# Entry
Amino acid sequence: MSAVHRVGREVIRQRHSAAPIVHARQQPLAPERRIRHDSGRLPACPAGLTCGAVQSNHVRQTAAAAAFAGLQCEAILEERVNDAPQEYQESGNVFLDKLFGIKLHRVPGGTAMDAALESLASKVLERGGKPYLIPGGGSNALGSLGYVDCVLELQRQCEAMGLRKPHLVHATGSAGTQAGLLAGIHALGLDWPVTGIGVRASREVQETRVHDLALRVLDLLGVEQPLPRAKVVADDRFIGAGYGVPTDAMVEAVQMLARTEGILVDPVYTGKGLAGLLAMVRAGSFEPDEDVIFVHTGGSAGLFGYQWAFPQAAA
Ligand SMILES: Cc1ncc(COP(=O)(O)O)c(C=O)c1O
# Structure
């Protein structure tokens, strides 16, 4: 935990520190683990294939991890934001994807991404390559272990700071972050509340997705005690018009943190997550003596694709 913020009450930011490859998204462990998993037998895995939205932080981290591991990488980018300007299409994470040297394929919004990934894998196979599929967000059981690690790290930090039962708040999209956090908390027998702030799916859909994945993570960890469904909370009130579409509350949150702490959150995930946290603080949703930790999962590179959402910043 590297900073304490004042947003009407004290909130502690946990900047997940296990980010050895690229600093801007602190959730690199999904792609990194997936790639490292196979890099011990490198010849079997020369091409990492993944997917995401145009300004996907996950794709950019996978590109960086692949560069680090010396692997080829291709990604399918889905156009999820209608009428987005040129900077969204080319700057921010897209620019970095290209800098890391991966091959990008663009598809329209609504494309069945898993099927598109399978079809790309078939093409790689046809040309003699060995595809290794990484789901969007790196959100499968293996990828979610990154956030089990995060809980271990948090537990040590909380002990050092004398925090007994912190309430974690974070952004939730493809579910791996929240599934890993919940599985880690459950596996360690902790009783910490977690509130995911949804960026895409409705509450019911997201909570089911997170719970299903958390059960798979616990299975991988060999934990038999089932995670109660009621532990999964994914608030969908801060999505706005849709995934990746700016909201006033996100803009306010991004600017507030930038101007009071000099810390960046991103427009698609952590900005909406922080907007949710601010709303919870304002509504008195936390107990007066409750310790609140905002898990800052990174993503600030995406800001460069979203300058159009911050007209006041240019004024
Ligand atoms: C910066 C950032 N924060 C949070 C998330 C949400 O995590 P998840 O997709 O694991 O739910 C993402 C997803 O890519 C992200 O890029």
Observations:
- Confidence is low (pLDDT under 50) at residues 1-7, 17-43.
- Residues 3-23+140-314 form a domain with the Rossmann fold fold (CATH 3.40.50.1100).
